[in-house]
Amino acid sequence: VPIAVFLSGRGSNFAALAEAAEDPAYPARIVLVLSDKVDAKGLDLARAKGIATAAVARRDYDSRDAFDSALEAKVHEAGAQLICLAGFMRILGRPFVERWEGRMLNIHPSLLPAYRGLDTHARALADGVAEHGVTVHLVTPELDDGPALAQARVPVRPDDTPDTLAQRVLVEEHKLYPAALAAYLAG
Ligand code: GRF
């Protein structure tokens, strides 16, 4: 299945997906990496791997709908049939999300429904939770709210900082996203 990955920054989850997709037996192949940030590191990673990239800046469009349509045009142009959000830091409009419902996945660094939104690691630490983790879910119009496809858990240690906890979660993210996507495509 040809997929597009949307990202805004570092792109380590994209890299994990790309590595998995190098196996000919893997059920997805990345045909486009799309970013709302022209200087996203993830775009450089994609270029280095010979994967097509596109950058679409929000400020070049008058409305969210116009921006979303520009994104969608790139996705169609590349022939992608499924979208993986991987650190894409913009909220997509309801019409776009509804058109892609069941065909758009996201990875969120918490055990949803806990800690939707930003700063998940700091909030988990502030609450003193014993366990934290990551969720791959289907995207629905409500932020970080769609049905979970897979989760991975990590322990929270007494001396954790948001950074050390994020790092422990990220190791799991890189395993979970490729596995969850493959399982989803396998039905
Ligand atoms: C990850 O923690 C992901 O779960 C969250 O944003 C971060 C993106 O990291 N949605 P990267 O760009 O994939 O390295």
Polypeptide structure, described:
- The record marks 144 as: Raises pKa of active site His.
- The active site is at 108 (proton donor).
- Pfam families: Formyl_trans_N.
- One of its GO terms (cellular component) is cytosol.
- Pathway: Purine metabolism; IMP biosynthesis via de novo pathway; N(2)-formyl-N(1)-(5-phospho-D-ribosyl)glycinamide from N(1)-(5-phospho-D-ribosyl)glycinamide (10-formyl THF route): step 1/1.
- By secondary structure, the protein is of the alpha/beta class.
- The protein has one domain (2-185): Formyl transferase, N-terminal domain (Rossmann fold), CATH 3.40.50.
- The protein has six helices and seven strands, in the order βαβαβαβαβαββα.
- It has helices at 12-21, 41-48, 64-78, 94-99, 120-127, 162-185; strands spanning 2-7, 29-35, 53-55, 82-85, 104-108, 131-138, 148-155.
- It has a seven-stranded mixed β-sheet with strand order 3-2-1-4-5-6-7, with helices on both faces.
- Helix 1 (12-21) packs parallel to helix 6.
- It is globular, with a radius of gyration of 16 Å.
- The mean pLDDT is 97.
- Bound molecules: 5-O-phosphono-beta-D-ribofuranosylamine.
- 5-O-phosphono-beta-D-ribofuranosylamine binds next to helix 1, strand 5 and helix 6.
